[in-house]
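Collaborator request, handled under Task 6.
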Amino acid sequence: MKARVVITGLGPIAPCGIGKERFWAGIRSCKSFVKKLESFDVCDLDVRFKDVSDFQSQMVGMIDEFDKHAYGLSLQQLRRMDRFAQFAFVGSKLAIEDAQLRFDELDRDRIGVCVGNAIAGAKRMNEEFEVLTELGKQQLSPLHAHPSLYMSSVPHVANVEIASHYKLHGPCTCISTGCTSGIDSVGYAKDLIENGLVDVMIAGSVDAAISPATLASFDVAGALAKRNHEPDRASRPFDAERNGFVLAEGGGLMVLESLEHALKRKATIYGEVLGFGTCMNSFHMTSLQKEGEDLARAMEISIEKSNIKHEDIGYINAHGSSTPQNDSCETGAYKRVFGDLAYKIPISSTKSVVGHSMGGASSMEVVVCVLAIYDDYLPPTINYEVPDAYCDLDYIPNIGREARFDVALTTASGFSGIHSSMVLCRYKG
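Structure tokens returned to the collaborator:
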């Protein structure tokens, strides 16, 4: 018999707050944490890329309260780790503390790490280029590049830093599948535990992609929101006036373990991971199929693997990126999967509160689902003001609701056509 997989530690890191309590208070505040971008900090040095005015989109979901030293990062770690890896390290620390894991009492050979991302160390690469070339004015000299440049920029550096720090000897894997990286990483961790290969996994995803190069990449593609005059109203999933997503940073780290292992050490159990589904549409790098049939397939897989009925689902945390195409296609996918029932299931996109942290978004939203079940609360889609005829479901507009429910579904869609879905539920013994 396969092991049941539960979540016992939460380490979210987001514009609305770092750590379980502050993060959830921010989500429940029903207000936006998106702000106007003033400049790009570079490498903790007094060097800034100041000309933001050329960008069509000048808003971001930035984590302002991140005090690197207060979270125990050494000067050596700060210099060799990109911001995304720093976030991952701190998120793992918070999740481990929340789970009250005592590694000296556990078998480290059966504890692994899987932290995903979409952008990895692009920020550090951008920063290093600007420093070495005096903001592009000088010839780049590789002789002056920092020795840790390569290791600080590769996608798996966060996994290595976490595993090495805690001396964990199990699987150390990085999954980089764009915006689905978080769900995919948690799904991979679930499979390892379920099949008895490990007892515990530190899993999730993060990204910290707010840099000139990254912002320009999405800006030129026309994917970003352009409501620069009122950034707090820019991320507006499912609203008829949505015109793009808001680039953000952050993610969510979790401790997952087998139910048997969790009960043995008398851990607090926030919820159970029931099913995971993922698929590829092989259709287009950025476009989606009109009726959402690809995302629908991922949802059907996750529901089937969960051994539940469609009517058991009491809440959906949507990908809800706030782009015209995604939100209408996603709405079509819900109608395809649930039929008339789609109109009765509360749905929300918490990207309306914190923006879109790319590879970190979907694991952050797994944390949202777990806390929503644990706290009997349905988080809202804020900035929902003008109904869209193509998006006509219950998106929990603007104000959250107190409600008890047992099963949540979360979805993610990424550039290149990858779609993933996960079902989580209340632990009932």
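The cover message to the collaborator said: "Residues 115 and 411 are 18 Å apart (CA to CA). Residues 42-48 have pLDDT under 50 and may be disordered. Please let us know whether this matches your experimental observations."
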